[in-house]
Specification:
Elements: H1 5-22, H2 27-48, H3 68-99, H4 108-119
Helix pairs in contact: 1-2, 2-3
């Protein structure tokens, strides 16, 4: 039995929508993105597990048994998605309590590093001559 094209397209759409939402600035959209991505992983595990078979209990039947590994991986993915969702809900609720919005703010230190990189400026904490640096022909360290 080959995988259904509809399910393959569904996995692709869910992954695309989930990644797009994760890249947003709102914590609630990021949370929905993680949920979509978790559901896409579960459907993908269903697809790759192959055709349905007998329960994976030795001696129960003579038919071909189903592979228990995708079932265990799907259960693990469900638990991880649940934990991520609970943590994201707690973050969004706390951000709403503190600021009245769930938008993710820019990090001040990250902005400073980006501006220094644009000006090609060396940080004050960077060592001028790194230990073990090899000088070039002009005597400057590499």
């Amino acid at each position: 039995m080959s995988p259904s094209l509809t399910l393959v397209l569904l996995v692709g759409v869910l992954v695309a929508c989930g990644v797009t939402l994760i890249l947003e600035r709102s914590l609630s959209r990021i949370l929905v993105g993680f949920v979509l991505l978790g559901n896409a992983v579960n459907i993908l595990l269903l697809l790759v597990s192959g055709p349905a078979g007998a329960p994976p209990i030795v001696g129960l039947s003579d038919d071909e048994m189903a592979d228990p590994l995708p079932q265990a991986m799907a259960l693990t993915a469900i638990v991880i998605t649940l934990g991520t969702t609970a943590f994201g809900l707690a973050l969004a609720y706390r951000a709403w309590q503190l600021r009245g919005t769930d938008d993710v703010q820019d990090d001040v230190e990250d902005d400073l590093i980006r501006r220094r990189a644009e000006r090609d400026e060396v940080s004050s904490t960077f060592e001028e001559a790194a230990p073990g640096a090899v000088p070039d022909e002009e005597g400057a360290d590499q």
